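A reminder before we start the practical. When you read a complex entry, don't treat the lines as separate problems. The point of joint prediction is that each chain is placed relative to the others, so the output describes one connected object in space. Small molecules and nucleic acid strands, if listed, are placed in the same frame. In the example below there are three entries. Take a minute to note the order of the lines before looking further.
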Amino acid sequence: MITLHWFRRDLRLEDNTALTAAALASRGIVIPLFIFDPILIAPERRFTSAPRVQFLLDSLAELDRNLRQLDSRLVLQHGDPLELLPRLVQAHYVTAVYWNSDYSPYAMRRDAQVQQALAELRVQCHSFKDGVIHEYPELVTKNGTHYTVYTPYARQWWQRLAAQPLHVLPAPVLHLPAEQLPASKPLPTLAEFGLATEQQLPAGGSHAAQLLLQQFLDPQQPSNIGTYASHRDRPDLMGTSRLSPHFRFGTLSVRAAVLAAQHYAEQHGREDNTVELGVRTWIGELAWRDFYVQILAHFPHVLQRAFRPQYDGIAWENDPARFAAWSSGHTGYPIVDAAMRQLRQEGWMHNRARMIVASFLTKDLLIDWRKGERLFMQLLVDGDPAANNGGWQWAAGTGTDAQPYFRIFNPVSQGQKFDPDGAYVRRYLPELADVPTSFIHEPHKMSAQLQRQCRVQIGHDYPLPIVDHATQRKRALDMYAVVKQQR
DNA sequence: TTTTGAGTTGTTCGA
DNA sequence: GTCGAACAACTCAAA
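Here is the predicted structure of the whole assembly.
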């Protein structure tokens, strides 16, 4: 008996549900396969991203190295899985195919087709829950419908987590030697996909993920999971785990991460209540992740339209010059510009900053949230359709959260509150390095003399605000009021 | 079926 | 500077 494990968003050997099942079923006679699907990687595709492909390539290289230590190797193929898998399965007498579930609309459609094609060849497919803690239909309302509000969803998410302790699986034992595996294509470069990036990207692979997790769970670190509840909103403090790309590609198991966090709370929570809160808050972010996965799976229209249909009636202004200024980090609002430049430099942005720039694009520039969603998907190394869409629809007020329409971020006060010393701004906007902290979030208010003193001319070295927040706030309120009348 | 309570992340204004 | 209230109305989930 020979099985095949199809790697997709689970690029690791430890605690990999489907891989372990494949190995158990065949006593380790497993073909480990990854397919470059041109539909997902073609540069012209809406959500394709050079940073993510680079992270993927790093992670695949490491996965191959780790497999070779088990006398196996990764089989790489390019093409349509629907054509490739049946061919491979027949050529190598594979008896069953294993994979971990992917809940995006494209993946669910693809997997259903693959399953049908293989069933015609009398080959069984086995899919497993792996990338989330709880999946639909594990969490449904009393009426059996899926949740659309986070809080009741989260209540049940936690209850179920408490009722069913998590377990992690060791890396499987593999017994199909490398030389007996199907032929493999060499690992491609980014350029071979017609992509390029100059970003200083986070390192891919499960080893890098382990290092990040260790750091985040190190009590000696000034910002770690124990301080997460208060530090997570501070882009200047690096108070988050930065594990998002690893959850995106499965180079870290969510179960292992939650277990490690719970263990930390047991070790260090007794003497310090804030630790307990930090751990709970951090694990709660993974509940949000599950929530949005579930929303996208059952309301796939959110990728095209507002979750709430009445918000499709908003007449966005979509001024191209304003979009360009936002996109390149030249709006004249330092916290917004610092965040957008962080995104362009690092392929990553702090979560608080994501909310600020999203609020600014939609409520201050009156630009369609989908334009921001798309840019994020192109530049973010952690870009995930479910979480990214959920975040943008939340910021635009079109999503699952029935948030008050008047909840509009003030980019100056957000900066003062969450980057109080201006350290985040100065890190990404060197032209403002010498601006006094009292002016760092509104440098245009400095006198000409003060500007000379701190060697920056606002309007020349750094832009004046491209819009007036108070004015735009009122216009946004009007814009959303139109939605109310249409109801 | 009806009722009730509640809803991630905020801002502004006036006392 | 600090604090509390106002900013609306609606939908969801559960009792």
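Discuss with your neighbour: Residues 3-130 of chain A form a domain with the Rossmann fold fold (CATH 3.40.50.620). What might explain this?
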